[in-house]
Design a protein that fits this description.
The longest helix has 26 residues. It contains 13 helices and 14 strands. The radius of gyration is 25 Å and the shape is globular. Helix content is 36%, strand content 16%.
Length: 372
Amino acid sequence: MLKSRKFWAYEPCQSFEIKQEIFDNYKIKGKFHDDVQFFYDLIGVAPHPCFKLKQNKASDPSNSPSELSSFEIINSKVDINTLKILFYMLPHTKAFNMKLVSNDWDINNLEYLINSLIERPNNIYYLSYEWNDKLNINGKLISIKSDLSNTDYVDLFTREKKLLCKLFKNSKLEGICLRGDYIGDETAIQIFNLLEKNTSVKSLSLFYNNLTPKCFPAFCSMLLINRKLEDINFGKNFFDDDCISKLKDNIGKFQMSQEEVIEYNKKVKERDAIIKANTKLKLQKKPENEVPFLLEMQVIDDQYYLIKNKDLKVINFMENPLTDKCYESLINIFDNCSEMFITIDNKVLSGEHKNIFLDKKSKYYDKIYFSK
């Protein structure tokens, strides 16, 4: 055991790694801070600030694991031992939320974090990974904003983006916030592709991530398949009026003509035939044929409608370069999806168009929040 210090410091915690057998042989006492203190005593420093929720008193309810619901690490580096201790203790708490802000990650520590979230026992359902646009390489900070073009760091940033995408393969996370991480279009496209198969994420924030219209078609394609995402924050990016126009074509219900209904029913029969054939192939242990994806069709008031997406209900477009030209598209969105709520900047719509959403007698009243 090292000589104890009264303060926490990244360097000694990062350079001295607690071996797994120590965790394996330790018996949990049931007092959270006492258990945490044991491991930091081995390193010789005070516990990481994320564990200092309250003073460590026997009468303090925070010393009971059942009282802990959230872990926040803000403006502080995170060493490998703190991560090991954290994920060792998490199963013994009721923590469901983790917030990580401006941490200047070492890429290996970040990999340990994300792999642990996915593979190790924990009850984290909401993850905020915010304003983490810098990485720490042997004490030197590199920024994805200014150093992305440096060939020495391309592989490192690629590795980080792959790790963030890995979060969307997790079948448990319901909320993911990647605010201010500067992920860019290519990573966003990968995330939207992964969301086509994801069945857990309900809320996603991509606020301030240098996203442009290039990635928006992938978002619209995802909407046709994903039925779990309920709200998304696209604030402070570069989406334009054309993006709103694309959105109106991919969300809500669309009335079908008689010819379209006939064609749809034909495709249903073809799909059912494939499913039936696959049942036989499965019994014969032969490769099955791909089942084509079909959108849902509903009958409403004796009219047939194609349902493209009715689950996404909240979108934030504040601080994007939208203009009054998006007005008609917004109206179409609300006509096709009555439960939709959208945030845009106060200056986007002209007075006449804006009043449509401010008039309490209008069916569009309170459909838009105008950000100041």
